[in-house]
Amino acid sequence: MRKKWMGLLLSAVMVTGLVAGCGSSTGSDSKEIKIGANFELTGGVANFGKQTVNGIMLAFKEVNEAGGVNGKKLVLVQADNKSEPSEAANAVTKLITQDKVSAVLGPVTSSDVLATLQIGQDNKVPIITPTGTNPNITVDNGQVRPYAFRGCFIDPFQGQVMANFAAKTLKAKTAVIYIDSSSDYSKGLSESFEAAFTKNGGQIIGKEAFLQKDQDFKATLTKIKGMNPDVVFIPAYYEEVGKINKQARELGITVPLLGTDGWDDSKLVEIAGAAALNNGFFSNHYSPEDKDPRVVKFVEAYKKEYNEAPSALAALGYDTALMLIDAIKRAGSDDPGKIRDALEKTKDLQVVTGVLTLDENHNPVKSAVVIEMKDGKQVFREKVNP
Ligand code: PHE
């Protein structure tokens, strides 16, 4: 009796499963194209995830209002990866196997992205990070990963931009590098900064490390102060960078503090205070001050939608959504494999952060900007072409 019940129950579950499976599949007769969003919506870098999703949603809204893609509406299915690599892997698995999305956008940070790539590859669904800059995301041991793409420049370029800025513009001869050793992003940038800075005749006189979620950096900062470098390079994210800059200034470190795109968040000013950030410089993907008509139009539309200025993350989210939409149009299909093939051929696509052409390693070749923090405001310093 009991066995029979179990059997009945099991088949009921299976039938429901099948029906649900059918209902959620993106068959070609469906009126929707489902795209997954695997982002940091809570946890350490929640602001990053939220802004990127805002950028994506704006692009989807504009395209849907103009009639959609190939006659279908774009639907964004969101999953929160809690700013953790293991959760990012769970989120992508759910989006691909349960929601049956045609492609996945995200995550933001390099370590989170890296944790998802094998799953995309195994299921043959493209994963496109708008923002992950670590080179290993698209190339693994010299081999391009067929299902991995990105919408931004890579860290060897970004590290070089800041090393050149330190050596040439700031005339620095010595530097200390202070990294988050729990982050692939931070570790990669340390290497590329060092290579370019020493090539310029500069010297790295110290390397120090912290961990994500650390609160008190004073012991290490005191040590760094004793080394008396011309600049300190801190390639990390706003939460820790904010605290480090604040504590560095409290300890009397007055030299320029340098960073990278991970500094780009309004929370940085909240955490560090405007004054501590003066004499701070970082590389980024665009400046909302840019007078390029595309930038002006985007900034206006974004402000109208969200009542705040778009960060580089919002711009990259928007641009990467446009890159995916362009690929779906050219593919003429929402089949993940066909979208992958079309993504690979992305060429001369005009977007907010520049012109998107993917190289043979699935990386866009794009310019960077250097931003100076002045009294809590981001001020555009220079644009650097690759
Ligand atoms: N580039 C960062 C990473 O790879 C993410 C990031 C991009 C953060 C842009 C802020 C702005 O981890």
UniProtKB/TrEMBL annotation:
GO biological process: amino acid transport
Keywords of the record: Amino-acid transport, Signal, Transport
Matching SUPFAM superfamilies: Periplasmic binding protein-like I
Occurrences of domain Leucine-binding protein (ranges): 32-376
One Pfam family this sequence matches: Peripla_BP_6
Signal peptide: 1-20
Family designation: Belongs to the leucine-binding protein family.
Protein name: Branched-chain amino acid transport system substrate-binding protein
UniProt source species: Propionispora vibrioides
